[in-house]
UniProtKB/TrEMBL annotation, chain A:
ARM repeat coordinates: 125-167
Quaternary data: Interacts with SPAG16 and SPAG17.
Pfam families: Arm
Subcellular location(s) of the protein: Cell projection, Cilium, Flagellum; Cytoplasm, Cytoskeleton, Cilium axoneme
Name the UniProt record assigns to this protein: Sperm-associated antigen 6
SUPFAM superfamilies, sorted: ARM repeat
InterPro entries from the UniProt entry: ARM-like, ARM-type_fold, Armadillo
Membrane-spanning intervals of the chain: none
């Protein structure tokens, strides 16, 4: 055979290989095909192609592998077991940028499913190679490397520590400053994943100077970037007061409030998360946010959102009100209580209702003024209903009970307490009766109203153990009224009167 | 002689008398001795007793005086202590009153300032409203921008469509797809296509590449035009015209000596003098060491002078009139010594008796 014919055989083989790999890569984009591919044993076929002579085949094989591993974790595990990773890591250091992108894509896809797989990726020594990729010129390579690092660091603190130890954080901060939007997004998300596990990691991120750059990107019009930036800032500031103060010093605040009107709900959620994390540490930080008009904007955004997106806003109001009674009054003045009452009614999920009940409890527990503001929004009967509802989860019941107790102990607004007298179970009832026994001795109009509204009758019907606090309170209420009235309303009085009628002998 | 005889006779008588009396005396002597002794002893006793009584009385007097003195001293001490306690109680009560007022004021002004809190809450409501309004405006602006952007995108898309489908434009003979005779009026596409130039082939290539981000290879060279080749080189090694013009029309740069005028020094002095005159506020010169107060003439007050003579009031004091009574007495003190009550305050070591 002539030389040309021999070479033709090789060319055909190469074409076949290229076509195979390209088709597999295309098929792997569709989720329906993946099972079929898996059953056909595609991984064992792709593995030798990774070591192919032709660079395009290598790259496409890596791309196909990445798409497969991306899809579910069985395939990712199979990729790990197939001992592919060391080869990929080695070639990450050597090859051209398209291969680097594809290899980083594979590492990302493998690392995202579970901590064990991410640990396997780290054990292959991928971190150093990925960090070396972060120093490349091509933004696509940097993006792929940053994404892979972010996926690895997401799972737990040890993996994040490993990423930080490889020296990734300063390079990620440099990546944030690059002009390409996609790279910025990924770098911000990677920083957010690194800093969310522990204060030391967050401190490392802050020491690399991340906060200033993140703060600059707040007013960028791109939605996804804003999501990641706010998420990163929130994760940094949640760990300690110093970190929160550093975030605040970067002059994030009035600008962040403007983003609360963003049409994208995840941006709003992340902004409220950031505000919540900053406000929860000290009263001074909460005061700062209140003075900047943060409470009003958060309340508006709670009103405009639905479901889980509201949760950080509700918790933020609770944290602010919990610090001091001035701040709780500020929340009340900003019309927070009607909004929280609406949330309590509208929301269907228990954990959001529990958070709302907790927030209302924190607002109302400080003084009679606060309790009156909360009670006037008609919140107490709803809380009671949630408490007594058998379908509420334990957490919800516990939180509503605590909220009711703390509000009731300060509530002197009797019109709001009346309906509770009729419906409450005994452990709430003793607080209600206690409040009545505190207010009634001093206010004659309230006494009159108490009688006419049927409250006195209800109090007589309460069975209490003699000597208990409830009985003492009932006695003190009874002592506010003349004996005849008390006897008139005591149960069974009509029978006694009728017996007297029967026993009466007219002379 | 007779007298002597008489006398000698009498001597015998006297002797006899003497012996009898002596005998009687002897007999009486013991008795009288004893009586005398008794009298003497009584007398001695009385004398001694009266002496003892006298001594006792004096001793009593001394003791009385001494006891009185001690008791009075003790009493005075007690009175001093009581006085001190009374004063301290009084001071404490006054201090309580002061503290009561001060604490009330302090708490009401700095700790729980009701009006400050009220103002703060009012300010907060205003700020909230302002923030809400600004946010509304901002959201409105953003919405408008987005809509605007969307509308622009739509327009661009229709533009592009029209450019691409330009071949479907209707001609005089053949009405196009969008200008069907069965329609009342032509489709907007028709009108768009009429107003737009068709797409050229090289533009198509460019647009395709601009919209396709996944194209492999460098788009760097293909999308950006190459820099122009410099066409005309100037003839010969001429100098840069800018430098030539600069040299030709260089401005004059005189030295400092030439630039200053001849009368510069006098002008400067004049300037200084004028400046000093302008700035001067006090017109008469400062005179150190002048005994200015001695130059003043004493002006008598009108109240103590009258047209006829000086009035005694204000110049003569009533004390001066009664000189005999006042002899030996010191004048009234019009200046008191300072009250040393609080001198030692805070300077004693123990807190127990900040006894002043």
């Amino acid at each position: 055979m002539s030389q040309r014919q021999v070479l033709q055989v090789f060319e055909q083989y190469q074409k076949a290989r290229t076509q195979f790999v390209q088709t597999i890569a295309e098929l792997a984009t569709r989720p329906q095909n993946i099972e079929t591919l898996q059953n056909a044993g595609v991984l064992s076929l792709l593995r030798p192609l990774l070591l192919d002579v032709v660079p395009t085949i290598q790259q496409t094989a890596a791309l196909a592998l990445g798409r497969l591993a991306n899809h579910n974790d069985d395939l990712a595990e199979a990729v790990v077991k197939g001992d592919v990773l060391p080869q990929l890591v080695y070639s990450l250091a050597e090859q051209n940028r398209f291969y680097k992108k594809a290899a980083a894509f594979v590492l990302r896809a493998v690392g995202k499913h579970s901590p064990q797989l991410a640990q396997a990726v780290v054990d292959c020594g991928a971190l150093d190679a990925l960090v070396a990729c972060l120093e490349e010129f091509d933004p696509g390579v940097k993006e792929a490397a940053a994404w892979a690092l972010g996926n690895i660091a997401r799972h737990n603190g040890e993996l994040s520590q490993a990423v930080v130890d490889a020296g990734a954080v300063p390079l990620l901060v440099l990546c944030i400053q690059e002009p390409e939007l996609a790279l910025k997004r990924i770098a911000a998300s990677a920083l957010s994943d690194v800093s969310k596990h522990s204060p030391e990691l967050a401190q490392t991120v802050v020491d690399a100077g991340a906060i200033a750059h993140l703060a600059q990107m707040i007013l960028n019009p791109d939605t996804k970037l804003k999501r990641q930036v706010f998420s990163a800032l929130g994760q940094i500031s949640k760990h300690s007061v110093d970190l929160a103060e550093m975030v605040v010093e970067a002059e994030v605040f009035p600008a962040a409030l403007a983003c609360l009107k963003d049409p994208d709900e995840y941006v709003r959620k992340n902004v409220t998360t950031l505000i919540r994390e900053v406000a929860k540490h000290t009263p001074e930080l909460s005061q700062l946010i209140v003075n900047a008009g943060g409470v009003a904007t958060v309340i508006d955004s709670v009103g405009e959102s639905q479901g889980n997106v509201r949760l950080p806003g509700i918790m933020m109001l609770g944290y602010v009100a919990a610090h001091s009674e001035n701040l709780a009054m500020a929340v009340i003045v900003s019309k927070g209580v009607p909004q929280l009452a609406i949330c309590l009614v509208e929301e269907s999920e228990d954990h959001i209702k529990a958070a709302t009940a907790w927030a209302l409890g924190q607002i109302g527990r400080h003084s009679p003024e606060h309790a009156r503001a909360v009670a006037a929004a008609n919140v107490l009967p709803r809380l009671l209903r949630l408490y007594t509802d058998t379908e509420s989860s334990e957490d919800l019941q516990l939180k509503t009970k605590k909220a009711l107790k703390s509000i009731l102990q300060k509530c002197t607004y009797l019109p709001a307490l009346e309906p509770l007298l009729h419906e409450a179970p005994s452990d709430i009832l003793k607080h209600v009766v206690g409040q009545f026994s505190k207010v009634l001795p001093h206010d004659s109009k309230a006494r009159r109203l108490f009688v006419t509204s049927g409250g006195l009758k209800k109090v007589q019907e309460i069975k209490a153990e003699p000597g208990s606090l409830l009985q003492e309170n009932i006695n003190s209420i009874n002592s506010c009224y003349p004996e005849e009235i008390v006897r008139y309303y005591s149960p069974g009085y009509s029978e006694i009167l009728l017996e007297r009628v029967e026993a009466y002998q007219p002379t | 002689m007779a007298d002597l005889e008489l006398l000698l006779l009498q001597i015998e008588l006297i002797k006899e008398e003497f012996i009898t009396t002596d005998r009687a005396d002897e007999e009486r002597r013991v008795k009288e001795d004893r009586a005398a002794l008794r009298i003497q002893s009584w007398f001695r006793g009385t004398r001694l007793r009266s002496y003892l009584r006298h001594l006792q009385r004096k001793a009593t007097i001394i003791q009385k005086i001494w006891r009185g003195y001690i008791a009075r001293a003790y009493f005075r001490k007690k009175v001093k202590v009581q006085c001190f306690v009374m004063k301290m109680n009084f001071y404490n009560e006054m201090a309580v009153r002061i503290q009561k007022r001060w604490k009330g004021y302090y708490v009401r002004k700095y700790v729980h300032n009701y009006y400050a809190r009220k103002r703060y809450l009012e300010g907060l409501t205003k700020k909230n409203e302002q923030v809400r309004r600004t946010m509304e405006e901002f959201a409105e602006m953003q919405r408008n921008e987005r809509e605007h952007h969307q509308v622009e995108c739509e327009e661009q898309k229709t533009c592009l469509q029209a450019q691409r489908m330009h071949f479907l434009l209707s001609t005089h003979q053949i009405p196009g797809v969008f200008n069907s005779p069965y329609r009342d009026f032509p489709h907007e596409m028709e009108l768009q296509m009429k107003s737009i130039k068709p797409l050229l082939v090289k533009d198509i290539q460019q647009k395709r590449q601009a919209m396709d981000p996944s194209a492999p290879g460098d788009t760097f060279l293909k999308t950006r035009p190459l820099p122009p080749i410099p066409s005309k080189k100037p003839q010969g090694p001429f100098r840069d015209p800018a430098t030539v013009l600069q040299q030709r029309y260089r401005p004059l740069e005189p030295t400092l000596r030439v630039a200053t005028s001849i009368t510069d020094l006098e002008e400067a002095r004049e300037e200084l003098r004028r400046g000093e005159w302008r700035g001067r506020i006090i017109d008469h010169a400062f005179q150190p060491f002048s005994h200015a107060h001695k130059n003043k003439k004493y002006e008598r007050s009108i109240h103590t002078t009258s047209s006829f003579e000086r009035l005694a009031y204000g110049t003569v004091y009533f004390r001066e009139e009664n000189q005999e009574k006042l002899r030996g007495k010191k004048p009234f003190k019009s200046i008191f010594t300072t009250c040393n009550v609080f001198d030692k305050f805070g300077q004693l070591y123990s807190n127990a008796g900040k006894i002043v």
